[in-house]
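Thread: "does anyone have the structure for this chain?"

Original post by V.I.:
We have the sequence but no experimental structure in hand. Need at least a predicted one for the grant figures.
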Amino acid sequence: MQRLERELVKLDDYEVTWFETDSSWFGSPQVRRRVYIVGRRKEFGPLPSFDFHQAKSHSFWDVRKDMTKRDFQELLLAETQTENIRRTMRKHPPSNHRGMRRVGQAYLCEGGNVGLAYHARGKVPTLTKIWARFLPVYFPHGNAINHEVGDFEPNGWYGKGKIRRASVREVMRLQGFPDSFKPHPRAALAYEHAGNAVNAKVIYAITNRVLNSILA
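Reply from O.Q.:
Generated one for you, tokens below.
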């Protein structure tokens, strides 16, 4: 109990604030809303404002990785999963939620798992250590029309594009890591690390503002 009291006393020397922000506001095409808590010793002056301006919006298309045919094949979903996605796409129009362009409806897979595919020309949802590995992304057919706008009426080519999972490099880009970052060589662990990570672009913006206010 005495140790806890000493730690609480030390907090008197700090100014602490909290705020909620979204990684998509910083250019990452992932809707990832998180609460951040920032503290700084009072001797360095008051904390700066963390009222950030939203950066230019990006989509998964902007972080896609050029890959060989072999790489693409390794990222394909199981045939049953792909058919589940295409079946729901034939029955339901796409929907747009916070910039996430969901294609079809949620589909049920063997084992009771539920998934949902996302258009490559939109944002993707919050990554988790599981969702990072199995995120289905739909790449529209070249003859599809109006595939770069948020809301669109699909033509006869809708659903005939390619569907695959996101690669390790792509999920790292979704989390704001530069290509110079080296993920774990084991893909399964790399996906887990990406899903559990804090978005690097958000952390850079926060720490940069704190440090600049000290050096000003």
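V.I.: this helps a lot. The first strand starts at residue 14 and ends at 22.
O.Q.: and The chain has a mean pLDDT of 85.
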